[in-house]
Write a structure and sequence with these properties.
Blueprint (H helix, E strand, L loop, with lengths): L25 H17 L4 E3 L9 E6 L11 E13 L4 E6 L7 E8 L1 E7 L5 E7 H14 L14 E3 H4 L10
Antiparallel strand pairs: 1-2, 2-3, 3-6, 4-5, 5-8, 6-7
The structure holds nickel (II) ion.
Nickel (II) ion binds next to helix 2.
Length: 178
């Protein structure tokens, strides 16, 4: 088990476009995914992208089971996604609160497509293709943004809705870190 340190906003690896996983990289993918799962679990996150632990490859993981810390969050299947692609279904977007392990302590209101199709490969190279909506779709869009060097604060439309979680929501948790 290896819990890696999570890079924080300002680290150049979080601003760069990550590279596709090529055939030659699949052999080392298992170790990377294990470290990502261990790190996400240790920090109670709902998702993690490889650049967040300093690895500039297009790999994300996410998943939310029943978690007392996020009582309002609907379950999201535990997923490893390599070389992911997202296609919006329709134009509809909705605003929702997000946090990020690379931007600790803060929350922001972020617009995301309400419904998407995403596809890619799991850690064994098996194709994955799913439709998602709501919180599930939001988490996938947040993680895939990491692969293009985008952190959620840059998507906030109104910076009045960006701040410290304890100031915005003094009585409850608002959103998982992803
Ligand atoms: Ni994040």
């Amino acid at each position: 088990m290896t819990v890696r340190s999570v890079r924080r906003m300002g680290d150049p690896v979080l601003c760069a476009r990550a590279q596709e996983v090529a055939t030659i990289s699949w052999a080392v993918l298992g170790d990377l995914v294990c470290d990502m799962k261990d790190t996400m679990a240790a920090l109670n996150g709902a998702g993690l992208a490889a650049p967040q632990i300093g690895v500039p490859l297009r790999v994300v993981i996410f998943g939310v089971s029943v978690n007392p810390r996020y009582p309002k969050a609907l379950p999201v299947p535990e997923t490893v996604l390599v070389n992911p692609v997202i296609e919006p279904i329709g134009e509809e977007q909705e605003e929702g609160w997000e946090g990020c392990l690379s931007v600790p302590g803060l929350r922001g209101l972020v617009p995301r497509y309400t419904r998407i199709v995403y596809h890619g490969f799991d850690a064994e190279g098996t194709p994955v293709r799913r439709e998602a909506e709501g919180f599930h779709a939001r988490v996938v869009q947040h993680e895939c943004d990491h692969l293009d060097g985008i952190l959620y604060p840059s998507r906030i439309r109104d910076l009045r809705f960006f701040g410290y979680e304890t100031a915005l929501f003094p009585e409850e948790f608002s959103a998982p870190d992803v």
